[in-house]
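hey can u check if this looks right to u? its 133 residues, i copy pasted from the old doc so theres a chance i mangled smth
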Amino acid sequence: METSIQIEVRSTEIDVLGHVNNAKYLEYLEWGREDWYNQIGLPFDLFEELGMGTVTVNININYRKEARLGQKLVISTKPIRRGRSSFVLKQEIINENQELVADAEVISCTMSLAERKSVPLPDVLAKYFPTLS
């Protein structure tokens, strides 16, 4: 299941060069992932009830085009593959001219909140991924 959210670039997200600061893209992607979890019915409190959480272990991001103040951006998120305890989400940020601003593959894993160690993906999450990696 692919999800998307729309945001508008705010003045607090702009750096001295007049475009979105690179670190803000990570925040945008996080908002997109949070929305994806909520849209598939797995908000944080449900993971907490299962005694687990998800943790981001790697982000590979490509900055393609600058984003500027006031632009409307769409952040899309979709699952692409999974392993035993890890999973990969593909994310893209598109501007209002349908141009790719940034794209990323984000690797996360599920971990036990009590033991602070990785645990197998629960079925309620694993079912959204097409294949084992």
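DSSP finds three helices and five strands in the chain.
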